[in-house]
Amino acid sequence: GQQVMQIPQYQHVQEGEDFTTYCNSSTTLSNIQWYKQRPGGHPVFLIQLVKSGEVKKQKRLTFQFGEAKKNSSLHITATQTTDVGTYFCAGPPSNYKLTFGKGTLLTVNP
Amino acid sequence: DAGVTQSPTHLIKTRGQQVTLRCSPISGHKSVSWYQQVLGQGPQFIFQYYEKEERGRGNFPDRFSARQFPNYSSELNVNALLLGDSALYLCASSKTGSNQPQHFGDGTRLSIL
Known about the structure:
Largest sheet of chain B: 7 strands, mixed
Number of domains of chain A: 1
Order of helices and strands of chain B: EEEEEEEEEEE
CATH architecture of chain A: Sandwich
Number of strands of chain B: 11
CATH topology of chain A: Immunoglobulin-like
Distance between the termini of chain B: 37 Å
Strand content of chain B: over 45%
CATH topology of chain B: Immunoglobulin-like
Number of helices of chain A: 0
Structural class of chain A: mainly beta
Number of strands of chain A: 11
Number of domains of chain B: 1
Oligomer: heterodimer
Distance between the termini of chain A: 41 Å
CATH superfamily of chain B: Immunoglobulins
């Protein structure tokens, strides 16, 4: 079945440093979704990318979808303590299932 | 508008017992999906329901079952509980399915003793 892999598993940064997490799918995706889960919370939808090579920005967050629609990345510029949490990518092998990666846990030292 | 609501928030059961978890989707959302999340892992897909029909099933044993009601709310049932069933069970709703953003509830924390 489809596998979604994320690296790194953990990332600790100083406040103000940049952060990037990478996501790779074993199969081509129709779209990719990114979620953020704060400690003790539930996943919260961030963004959905649909087109090959698509790049979207949300303030300090930049999301990319690969040309082959099998990989994606999330880059945070100048991290803040409010960015702490686990970032998940998720890809639907169909409209009837969503496969999540294991996530990247980001901690930020103030 | 109210978000996805789940009940109960916490539950403690013993091995061999049965449990029912409940979920109410966002108004207007017809698709409900269930996920199991163990500590340090991403949510694992269990079921997706749409218009009361099961449309997708993850790699979980038959002890797991679910249903969706005419008002689009849903229940997840787990029989013959095992220690390994201890996890956070998340419900997510969307308008039509997995190709759309999923809106998660706060989850039910299930502990098996």
